[in-house]
Predict the structure.
Amino acid sequence: MNQTNINQLLHNALSLHHQGDLDNADKIYTQILEMDKDNFMANHLHGCVLSQNKNYEDAIIYLERSVILDNNNYEANNNLGIAYKNLQNHVKSENCFKKAIDINSMDTRAYFNYANLETDLSKFSEAIMLLKKVINIDGNHLQGYQRLGEVYQYKFRQDRNINHLKDSIDYFNKALSINPSSIESNVTLAMSHLWLNDIDAADNYFKVATTLMHSSEEAITMNINNYYGNNVLLTSLIKHEFEQLTHIDQDSDDIRNHKFTKEYYHSLKKLYDKTLTGSLKAEDVTKEMKNKLYKILYNKPPKKYNNNLINKENISEHESEYLDSKPEILVIDNFLTNEALRDIQKFCRNANIFKYPYYGGYVGAFLSKGLANKFILNLSEELRLTYKNIFNDFRLTQAWIFKYDSQKVGTNIHADQAAVNVNFWVSPESANQNKKNGGLMIWDELPPKEWNFDDYNSLDKSPKIKKMLETNNISKRIIPYKENRAVIFNSKLFHATDDFDFENTYINKRVNITFLYD
């Protein structure tokens, strides 16, 4: 085949590539390589597709070949660096990025990728220098400013210098000035303000982020695709949604100004009836209905309190018990004040924020997706400042609430990426039908050092974790569920929700609230 025909094939492949049709584009790249194994473009682009498909080892073969064919090609060196970075070959990755920068010192991509490599290695000062070059070259580089703010947050978590948080806020604000609709910038601004104990500002940015998350077509589509894709997930979501709106409509909690219509409620009931018979199919739920299910209809937070949410008895004794225990586990009963407990119970019953269903039959609400409010944020700060010897300089990094069906197996064995985990339980004591279980199982073991985050946190790895724990005869502690009980423990310990049996009514669902600190 002559060069003209090869060029036409490349043109066709590039058109498919730009349309996102990687498979068909790659078929043409491999077709060209069968005819001309030294074709630079086919080697380079085939390597890029393999890299995009996370087949990094094979990608490197073709990307290295493309660099040999054209050593001074910026894109080839930069993309080879990305592939090496993803294989954690840091030295070769660094060399590729440096080579790309030598080729074109005014292109921001290699600086940015090199900065991400340095960040992965916790070389934050070096990453900051590279990112500052990015924004010096391009003063409107949104991701450059955003990433600078994030790296300053990482630097704060490394040395706890609050000036880094102030720097992060400056860069996030710059990113927000470039794109006022950035959900990411609002969430990270909220976190920096929270870590500075500026609750009002944090609450404001979280609210903006939630509003954007529910008004951006891209964000709505992404969440619906991730969580509303099959009948199992939709069954959990629809059951909770209908039961919650029924509870609100009965006016037992004196809820006013909810935003659901009779038409929506009746449409929801038809789907709910199908969940009861197990006949719900994914195609029964239209795209329009999924959009309605995702919408937050009511989210009035509890009253704002100042340092009066948790009981302050026996603080030093609790701290000593945690610090002296091996592994670190502390159980606190009567965790919240009576008034705070009643308010958070009412909030959990009525806040229409549980939009994220899971296969275990439970639904979740998350800090940056509607859960954050002044009550929750004040509680997170009051907790760490009350138990200073446990939390030291750690800050809240994530929070969620899970609501479960009455009789289900809970979350599988996993560990979390944080220093301290706080689980507390707020379902009425009468809801739990078996007082000996329903709470938490914690094993006396941390993940092996060679395991990465996915190895110990991904729920599909639970069988591997369970086998390791059983093989090594690792003991576990079972902590029964009890209303207003908190369990504080080393978050890296393997743990799982115990089997449970709760009364089968909406107001008696098992509710678990988790705060992670790091």
